[in-house]
Amino acid sequence: MFGKNKNTITQEELNELISPLFDRINKLETVAKKQARQIAMLEQKLSNKPNADQVDAHGVDSSDGSFEHSDSNAIGPTQDNLATDVQNIPPTLNTFYLPAPNSNGQFLECSNSIQVGKSIYQLSTKDGINGQFIMLTTPDAIATAMISISQFVKPACRIEGNTHQQPRQIETLEEGTAQRDGDVWRVISKAKVLFQ
């Protein structure tokens, strides 16, 4: 009756949940600012480009009667410059939440948000093909994983610690790796987790 309400969390738990969100927001803001600068630069280069009806078939600007050959770099970025600009954009980190893998180590589903009673793992990927995953440490994820350790945990993790009692805490010692294979994520190397 006077026990801790299951819906309340401590300030420390709240900070732990919010901290990754602030990190992600900062990264996204940095990328957005860089993209805005690149757009402004490209718009500036395009504004220097002569109209199509002012350029004759030889690429000469005939609007003022002069016949100087136009510099191709003044018109805009070359394909090589655009490719270099795109390569310099840092990849964004995408995060997915995964339920238990099947016995072959394949995560058949993923979600952009935690699904209570289903999500056990968190996978992060920069390229959408290769990713690193950890076991979630929320009480719901731990409870779901404990339903069947051999079915929900062992296909994706090497376990250290006592598996015969409900752990108070699960710590990921080493991230696991997974690779996208069509619509599924396949475990390449298992995560190493400690049950405490």
TrEMBL record:
Residues 55-71 have a biased composition (Basic and acidic residues). Residues 44-83 are annotated as: Disordered. Residues 72-83 have a biased composition (Polar residues). This is Uncharacterized protein. It comes from Hallella bergensis DSM 17361. The lineage of its organism: Bacteria, Pseudomonadati, Bacteroidota, Bacteroidia, Bacteroidales.
